Amino acid sequence: MTDEISVLGVECFAHHGVLEHEKRDGQTFVLDLTLGLDTAPAAASDDLRDTVDYGSLVAAVKTAVERDPVDLIETVAQRIADVCLLHDRVEWARITVHKPHAPIRATFSDVTLTITRRREDST
């Protein structure tokens, strides 16, 4: 059994997308990160070293999202999962990438992709 730590609504400005204007102009992406880990050691010790420092993790995720434009949010989501799984205590990561300004010719509120990756899935 694992516990979950979530950080929701992380905003990043990046230049991902298939269309030329997406790469040129950029847009806001919103991230939801949920990490599976055992929080009992941190609860017992009250020591940040025994859990995930989500402030540092979010900074690393933002850096990963805002660099090197790619075409697909699938690639962005995998990149985020890879960063999350670098932390030894994280057993799995569920990542949702929101693309609220996707170039769709219709009224819509959001486009999302959610992936779940486990430590054994990442290499």
Average of pLDDT: 95
Number of strands: 4
Number of domains: 1
CATH topology: GTP Cyclohydrolase I, domain 2
Major sheet: arrangement of strands: 1-2-3-4
Main β-sheet, in a few words? 4 strands, antiparallel
Would you write up a description of this structure?
The protein is α+β, with helices and mostly antiparallel strands. Helix content is 31%, strand content 30%. The protein has helices spanning 20-25, 40-45, 54-66, 73-85, and strands at 3-14, 27-37, 92-98, 112-118. The protein has a four-stranded antiparallel β-sheet with strand order 1-2-3-4. The longest helix is centred in the middle third of the chain and has 13 residues, at 54-66. It starts with a strand and ends in a 5-residue tail after the last strand.
